[in-house]
Amino acid sequence: MPDPHASTVPLARRAGAWFLVLALPAACALAFAWVGGWLSPQRLTPRRLIDQFQANAGVHPGYRRNHAKGVCVAGHFDSSGEAAAYSVAQVFAPGQRTPVVGRFAIPGGNPYAPDGSVPIRSMALRFALANGQQWRTGMNSMPVFPVATPQAFYAQLQAGQPDPATGKPDPKKLAAFFAAHPETAAFRAWAKTAKPSASFATDGYWSLDAFVFTGPDGQRHAVRWRMVPEAVDATGAAAPAGQPDYLDADLRQRLAQGPLRWKLLVTLANPGDPTNDATKAWPDDRRTITAGTLVVDSEQAQDSGPCRDINYDPTVLPDGIAISDDPLLPARSAAYADSYLRRTSEEAHLPGTARVDTKPQAEAHP
Length: 366
Known about the structure:
Catalase HpII,  Chain A, domain 1, ten-stranded antiparallel sheet, 7 helices, 21% strand, disordered N terminus, disordered C terminus
């Protein structure tokens, strides 16, 4: 039956309602177009970033686009209680033990690269808190990052793309990049003396990016953290020559003799310390606390191990830990998600592959 009051509804009001109905999906489509970079071809997007990783290392179906070569590990974290005054995260509660699934890897998108080809190792961890929350972190064995922004990182990848004629990066392009980015000086100074280590177990790992702890009193504290190994290589042994895959074998041998341990050290910033620039280290005199001990007691191949389906997105954080204003963090999260979706889609089509979970989870470990 017709509504007797319909004729009293102003035409303009009805037209406005239809406009809202039609405008909402249009606005959503516009937002997706902006995020995807379709409206601005020059805008840096996660897809362009991961495409550049593939241009540099080739496409290896089913593998992460960076840190492709790695191994799964598992263990737990024992809290010392010292960080509980600065963060309400359950993982730092006194006496708390938290299960951990991690991954050691080397940088680059080639899963067959020799372990001694780069001087950097990485550690990625997922802490599964008892309250159902998670803390994921990706760390590297260097004290500073080369660049401070996603755009500069993309430019670095472009400069490092191998020349088809030589199979190696063009030295002139790299020189031009470094000349245009003086902020890389600290990293380059470190890299000049850095050598590939002989073991994942003897390396220390830095968060590089800054984060924010919130304590029980509501106070916020800018922090960075690092893992300091208990195992020390007194001889300073370098990578063994002629052994492209020695890191996994060394890790397996060490674990056969007992668990491996790292101290989690958290450094608190002073006012004025940069939180948005991973190329700048904080002064050595900043207050540092020992938040607890990471214990690794098992390893497993990454194609079947528990780390395989984990996206080590560093912005997946529990209550009490938040991201800082560092622009690398949201960029890492978006790029890792793109990498995760690519490799999981490829794994689903590989012969004999049966995935346990193809849902994105939340990738230094994309």
